[in-house]
Amino acid sequence: xxxxxTCGELxxxxxxxxxxxxxxxxxxxxxxxxxxxxxxxxxxxxxxVFNPQHNKELTEKSAALGREFVIQVKGKCxxxxxxxxxxxxxxxxxxxxxxxxxxxxxxxxxxIEDETDGGDDLRMKYRYLDLRRKPVRENLLARxxxxxxxxxxxxxxxxxxxxxPHLIKSTPEGARDFVVPSRLNPGxxxxxxxxxxxxxxxxxxxxxxxxYQIVRCFRDEDLRADRQPEFTQIDCExxxxxxxxxxxxxxxxxxxVFKKVRGLELxxxxxxxxxxxxxxxxxxxxxxRFEMKxxxxxxxxxxxxxxxxxxxxxEAESVIGICTKGCAEYSRKQLDxxxxxxxxxxxxxxxxxxxxxxxxxxxxxxxxxxxSSDDLKKIAEKFSALPGDLILILAGEKARTCKAxxxxxxxxxxRLGLRKKDEFKPLWVLDFPLLEWDEEEKRWNAMHHPFTxxxxxxxxxxxxxxxxxxxxxxxxxxxxxxxxxxxxxxHNRKNQERMFAALGMSKEQYxxxxxxxxxxxxxxxxxxGGIAYGFDRFCSMVTANQxxxxxxxxxxxxxxxxxxxxxxxxxxxxxQKKELGLK
Amino acid sequence: xxxxxTCGELxxxxxxxxxxxxxxxxxxxxxxxxxxxxxxxxxxxxxxVFNPQHNKELTEKSAALGREFVIQVKGKCxxxxxxxxxxxxxxxxxxxxxxxxxxxxxxxxxxIEDETDGGDDLRMKYRYLDLRRKPVRENLLARxxxxxxxxxxxxxxxxxxxxxPHLIKSTPEGARDFVVPSRLNPGxxxxxxxxxxxxxxxxxxxxxxxxYQIVRCFRDEDLRADRQPEFTQIDCExxxxxxxxxxxxxxxxxxxVFKKVRGLELxxxxxxxxxxxxxxxxxxxxxxRFEMKxxxxxxxxxxxxxxxxxxxxxEAESVIGICTKGCAEYSRKQLDxxxxxxxxxxxxxxxxxxxxxxxxxxxxxxxxxxxSSDDLKKIAEKFSALPGDLILILAGEKARTCKAxxxxxxxxxxRLGLRKKDEFKPLWVLDFPLLEWDEEEKRWNAMHHPFTxxxxxxxxxxxxxxxxxxxxxxxxxxxxxxxxxxxxxxHNRKNQERMFAALGMSKEQYxxxxxxxxxxxxxxxxxxGGIAYGFDRFCSMVTANQxxxxxxxxxxxxxxxxxxxxxxxxxxxxxQKKELGLK
Lengths: 583, 583
Prior knowledge:
Chain A is α+β, with helices and mostly antiparallel strands. Chain A is about 30% helix and about 25% strand. The first copy, chain A, has 3 domains: about 90 residues, CATH 2.40.50.140; about 260 residues, Bira Bifunctional Protein, Domain 2 (BirA Bifunctional Protein, domain 2); about 130 residues, 2-Layer Sandwich (Gyrase A, domain 2).
């Protein structure tokens, strides 16, 4: 061992000890002829002193050190005269008697400090240096703590951690599979799993009863910001359960993790139907840290704003508003900003209508031409608007308007400081539609995945009115982020075949792709259900209450799926291509 | 929940309770008009009773059940008159009041019993049924316990579990990489990692100090029995350590796992040099549960059997013997079996010479024509053979003879019952050669991998006599099985470049493949080292003291790398091939 202690553990009680430390040179300061070095390792920082009166030669040698050099020092732990209250080791310093340079360092391309001067690309290329920075390191160490808390809970509940294969069969449903050419089986391909879905169900068939795995998954999607081609899932499944059992179990898990990792007691998880979530928040993962619910001024036949010759509303499929408390004083500039926000191509609204409920009881709106003061008052009553409030209204095609209003609501939440960093509002969203219509492919898609079962009472609708069938599915949502989702599964061959048929698959297609699981269902499959959490996102939420995941992955890829450090993907040998039958 | 209790938990103290169970029909027996069903789940077996005097209709219904049906029963827990001491639940049974068939089952293609009538291929195809058998299920549950014990130990020692990427850059060293075509980067490929070797070293560069991961690895090798294209490693690395630190840490881990999982105290791990292992056992992973060490009768210039006109010995490069205690009474047939054993093509020996040290003090050998009784006595003294012992001798080319004698020694260990199932003999093998000559490619290969450092005292030999350089490498061996291996790593650019050059790589080649880690070495890399265990094999050893791994993997592949259940690998769509630029 190159050290007797770490750089984070020495305290005043260690004063007087002779010891050895090893670590990185964080900072060098010269003061009154003496050199002071902050020596860093994973555990902390300890101050080293090179004093020419103590050892002249050594002090000169120390002057040649540079940032990020790896050194070993032997010396004595002494009390500091000038204590540093910011550092746990701030009461002591090491008076150095021996200095060994274990490795030199070039000047790093960016500063290794909590706040760095390095841009994204540079930090990704030198990820091994970026990982030296305390905030990045602490994210990853926190990730380990989250994994431990998850395992402790599930182990305690009798779940068995079973590893499922990574080289499987290609069965693309939804997203694309990554494939792996097989050399021993020329012309054939393995696929990398998008999730262990079928395997965990087979483990239920096998009687494993309770299964979990923290497992890598792969999806060859066109990457969006913060999507990674490989990501990690907490994957869980239980046999002989109904929906309520799964909800209780995993509400318990999430609470337990927050308690262990953050010392935080989460409240009970309220429940909301998918329909209510869409109606009130325009979104199936609403941030309920704040209210500001949708008010539908026009929705199908219901219309409280029509007939006033305002074409925008009259011609719109939907008119939706929200009431923002105390914003009636918003300036022209602020309102213009909000208008620009909803007109961005991602949202694509034509404009934004506002009604100010002034402090003096009067109303002022951007549609005064069409709506009388009385009209505005009536509308304002719909929102229970109080003097001082600002009503924001969007109109247009239903789905698009919902989405835009949902984004505007979150934007207003941000502006009003309603999305607090120290507040966590979990939620179960229930009763999702089983299927959604794919306009491009002109067929139904599974909203969750094709193994999701449906409500018994909707059974007859599957063939007659599939869009109306509600799934036995549930999502765990927190602060506007989907942490996980799952369902009670189909567990017999007949219903699974009906589902595949509803998705437009021929018997031949589903037999080829999923024959193994259809067969398995005929050998005594228990009722079962489960859930999967996006582990990267879960860590990000538990640790930092944020949505971004890249800072919680040790070696992430960029938006083009490239690892900038490795410069991967890359070329392979012609010889290998030939062996794989790719030429 | 479909049950109030599991099938493994009811005891006499539960008698009188009304309860609900769910599980699989293991066995149905009709006895005196009553039906008895063994109901099985992961936790055990509980006997159900259908009594016509209690409920006639239900008893008739129960007669229609078949093996592996999934049922739910409600009833009363009652004391059994005829207790079964073999079962933890054998004191009670359930008098059934309600029966619900949750799912029927076809007749399984093989019996779901501890000893099954199913052949390998059938069991692999219906793996989900094979996994229902208790021995297979218990192997996998034990695997989870091993993982837990590993994590507990490493977490306790401050190791951070960090996930490394699976889609990386192809850098084939030794075995072939599996590759993954990139759709977003046409014509380019990711590789699946053979191990996270470079990543764990980069984590040391980053200052993570102590890292571990239980991680999937991939190797596209021509498969041998018991090799899997994907396998799991316990991967560990430590900074600021020397060899002794790593040995202590992981000797501690192995002991801790055996203690927790098997309740077994392992002895201290003896250490043996690679050279000694080869000389005494002809093998770098000797099974030291028994002695039976090699005696070299001829090795280079040393020759104690030459000059007797026995051409087989005179012309051989090496003559090696072992002494098997108390086997002098071996029959002609037994000796013939051993001769056939060493003549198998895998070993390729010409024959086997024996010397019997008879109980009466005389000697009898298969080479009496060439060696006098006195000659034989002298040879026997070399082996310290006692009356009753049998000496077995092989001759031929050195490496081949070593290997054959090593196998013969293990065979004799088996025959004499010296390889005990309840005995565990761990061992560190040290001081491996750094390089080994590849006769086919006419170049040096790294014996462990190209990041292994070498003994300081051999430094000058790397360019002048590379075969003589000893590595800072170590293997953990138990009962003839290699559990893990590792090394102290190279940690500066200059030595890493020297190593690549020794392996015959051009500067251009190693810059392209390993530029990222060579660069990393210039930014303050600490001395570091680590180890990786084959997790599948480790589980197999801890749990069952055996070498085979397939029974410890939930969904293994066969010798052609095929998953028989999924029928993978398989074809992929032409559309996908086109998108990937493979057509």
